[in-house]
Design goal:
Elements (H helix, E strand, L loop, with lengths): L9 H4 L7 H58 L6 H10 L3 H4 L2 H23 L1 H8 L6 H25 L1 H8 L10
Helix pairs in contact: 2-3, 3-5, 5-7
């Protein structure tokens, strides 16, 4: 073999079987290229699997945050007959993520609850002066007595709806499809 670089780089230019240096180097480069492709493909598949698992866990955590915010609200406020609108607004703000991580039925559930809270607050404000008279044991006029009876009926209907929404069966039924940790992560 006649190699110009034999003196400079003897390891590159030796010829064991009579095949030229270019053929061996091309075969070795091709083998390394295939090996690198296989390694990168495996890494890509593993990265994709990890990314999907992270996405599922992140989605589950966001759903759990909304669920706990609502559950806490129910536990602390819903079973009281007095509505505190600041707490209702805070609950509504803390569940804004429900639009993105749940289906439409969860958003409707939250909207219904908030509407009930607003309606109860409106009724309390509308009939507050009548309730004050009742507490002070002042006699009501016929018109005030009729307004109070209507208030009591509407208030009772709203409270009943709110209590039913907070019952374990109905509350968990809304979330049951979304709060199962994915089996394959």
């Amino acid at each position: 073999m006649n190699c110009i670089w034999m003196e400079v780089v003897p390891a590159v230019c030796f010829d064991v079987t009579g095949v030229g240096v270019n053929v061996w180097s091309t075969a070795i480069i091709a083998a390394f290229t295939v090996l690198l492709f296989v390694w990168q493909w495996r890494q890509f598949r593993l990265s994709r699997t990890v990314a999907r698992a992270n996405y599922r866990l992140s989605l589950y955590e966001k759903r759990l945050d909304v669920f706990y915010a609502l559950k806490t609200y129910f536990d602390e406020h819903v079973f009281k007959s007095k509505v505190e609108m600041e707490n209702a607004r805070a609950m509504y703000r803390s569940t804004i993520a429900a639009d993105y991580v749940f289906g439409e039925e969860v958003r409707q559930f939250i909207d219904q609850l908030y509407k009930i809270e607003v309606d109860l607050n409106y009724l309390d404000g509308k009939c507050g002066h009548i309730n004050n008279k009742v507490e002070l044991q002042v006699e009501l006029t016929e018109e005030e007595a009729a307004d109070r009876a209507q208030y009591v009926n509407e208030n009772t209907a709203l409270l009943t709806r709110r209590f039913k929404m907070g019952s374990e069966d109905q509350f968990y039924a809304v979330f049951e499809d979304y709060l199962n940790l994915p089996n394959e992560l």
